[in-house]
# Entry
Amino acid sequence: MELSLKKGLFNTSNKAPETTPFICETGKSSLTYKQWGFQKAGELGGTIAGLHAALHIVYLDIKKKIIEDDSKQNELKQSHKVRIEHLKGEIEKLNGIIENENNKLKHEESKIEQLKDELSTIKKHPETITTDPAVKASFIIGIVILLFLTIYLFIFYSSATYSAFFKEFALNNIGVASSIFDPNAIGKAFTDGVAELALILTIPFVFLGLGYLINKFQEQKGAMKYVKVGFLILITFLFDAILAYGITEKIYNITKENSFDEIPPYSFSMASTDIHFWTIIFAGFIVYLIWGFVFDFVMDSYAKLDKIKIALEELKIKIADSKIECKNFKLEIQKNKELVQTNTAEIEKEKRIIDGLIVPINDIKLEIMNFQTGWLSFLHGVGHTSPTTLEVQETVTAFIRNADSENRNN
# Structure
């Protein structure tokens, strides 16, 4: 550790302690600080007041020698000069980064202006965006197919739901076709009651709603969308299976009631091998899947058909992304400017140390301790009991502490 002396007595630095002893010169003779302490104690009677005065003289003597030792000062200041050069190199590097980031920022800001111009041009002249005729034709064809599939699904699910939950079967109408495509299902449901009619009319929209949700989930990002789509398809299949089981069970029970043979009760294992069960499922579930694919195709064609909206949305996304880039560049520039300011302040601090006087604190402590040893040697030699050794040590310690504190405050 080292001290830089300016206005006060001490100032700290980070150099390793200097251990070369100082020699006190009094007149023509040369004394060590220990010898000088012994001599001054004799001259001043070993008193505490005399010790205070002597310590200041010792300090000034040390300071005088340090001021006169130019080679020592240059050696102590060398590390600070090296640090200044290092900080200058860091500042130069940071300025290069700032210039580079500024160029990127200007480029991105220019890009934003170009995108805004494109956005404005499309809004003023939408005819510049042309539409592919094949896409329009595909959209119209898809709409027609989707319309007829929707009608089919409405008839299928309204008839199948009525047959599964409300219809009473007779021997003359136990066919699968008449069960799932009953043209009188809505009329019969109306006769049965408002609740039955409401269920028959709304149940097809449940499946159409499931198909719509599948389409919306497919637009999402991430693996979770596949789990959601798979879950909805499974729900639809199970519902179709329930409808198919209800219809085939009623057909089976009618046959059982009118048979003279002993026929076992209907079960899921029997349904899984019943061709009518799978016919009903495929007539509903497979068409439902086809409806979902066609719906996706129609929505995709519609998106492609509206090229103006797509172009505007893409430009807006690009502008938003560029603004985020600009924000990041500005943050990076600000961070590096703050580092430049910090390093500049450090350079000024190092220059103030170089311009001042650097004193190794350990050398001062060492020589003052040597002086104290000589002072105590005198007291012990002549048999002084006052001041005590403890009082002398406390006085010297307080002197060093106060001197160091004074320098730090300055």
